[in-house]
Specification:
With 272 residues, the protein is α/β, with parallel strands linked by helices. It contains 6 helices and 14 strands. The protein is 30% helix and 22% strand. A hairpin with a 2-residue loop joins strand 7 (116-119) and strand 8. The radius of gyration is 19 Å and the shape is elongated. The termini are far apart.
Length: 272
């Protein structure tokens, strides 16, 4: 895999960076090109004409497939325009009704878990990995054991889980499923590649469960608390300026605990 700043394994994958840097996307969204004789593009990112033109220039062969990991607006908006420019078939899952979604995304083919995208020199296995988004997909490049993780696993930070579309229980279950796969490299939607998949996935599961225990401990101490009251002690390791964003994942933890019968919601407040 090649990029401007990383020595990637293999020769069939390139990484381009979409020009959409922000506090949520970091340096920007990674767009991946897979294949040689015919090319699959994973996550075209924003519908920026210069970025789409750079994808076309970088492709070593005709672009036949456009794959989207999920429909958050930093991943999928470029898909439809790139399809118009190239005639490629668009694959993914439709946007959920809730949350910040790209509702203009219209896949030509809806992917299911276990589907395969087969090119002349690659096979991509589709894995449905809900959690960050209910329609989230990862793509496994076989036999390279290289997983394109979208926003399910990012390099350098954890991902936000924002109910009602985001679901913490689903996220943990999806992580545990990936932990059981023989992976050599994680190619994230944001950040650089990770060559220690088991350690990275284990660290994410441990981090989320530790945060969950912290939620329970501080809610028991406070008795009754709103999200705004609870986020301060639970996310005391996160800058206060980011507590507004942290409340989304805090709510996801609480909703998981509520379904497990461990906490109760009373209006805008929560208690054990």
């Amino acid at each position: 895999m090649k990029s401007a700043d990383e020595a990637w394994p293999g020769e069939r994958v390139q990484r381009l960076l979409a020009p959409n840097a922000s506090v949520m996307t970091g340096a920007g969204t990674n767009t991946y090109l897979v294949g040689g004789a015919a090319v699959a593009v994973i996550d075209p990112g924003c519908a920026d004409p210069a970025h789409l033109a750079s994808i076309e220039r970088a492709a070593p062969g005709p672009i036949r497939w456009i794959l989207v990991t999920h429909t958050h607006p930093d991943h999928s908006p470029g898909a439809m325009e790139l399809a118009q420019r190239t005639g490629a078939t668009v694959f993914g899952r439709p946007a959920p009704a809730t949350g910040r979604q790209d509702h203009d995304f219209r896949p030509d083919a809806v992917l299911a878990d276990g589907d395969e995208i087969v090119g002349p020199d690659f096979t991509l296995l589709v894995l449905h990995t809900p959690g960050h988004a209910s329609n989230h997909l990862c793509y496994l490049l076989e036999p390279d054991q290289l997983l394109f993780t979208g926003d399910h696993i990012m390099q350098g930070s954890t991902v936000m889980i924002s109910p009602p579309d985001g679901d913490m229980a689903d996220y943990l279950a999806s992580l545990r499923r990936l932990r059981g796969l023989p992976l050599r490299c994680l190619a994230p939607g944001h950040g650089t590649p990770m060559f220690d998949p088991p350690a990275r996935i284990d660290a994410l599961i441990t981090h989320r469960l530790r945060r969950e225990r912290k939620v329970q401990r501080h809610l028991a101490r406070l008795g009754v608390a709103t999200l705004a009251q609870l986020v301060v002690p639970v996310y005391d390791d996160v800058p206060a300026a980011l507590h507004g964003l942290a409340q989304h994942s805090l709510l996801a933890h609480l909703e998981k605990l509520r379904r497990e019968g461990l906490v109760v919601r009373e209006g805008e407040s929560w208690r054990v």
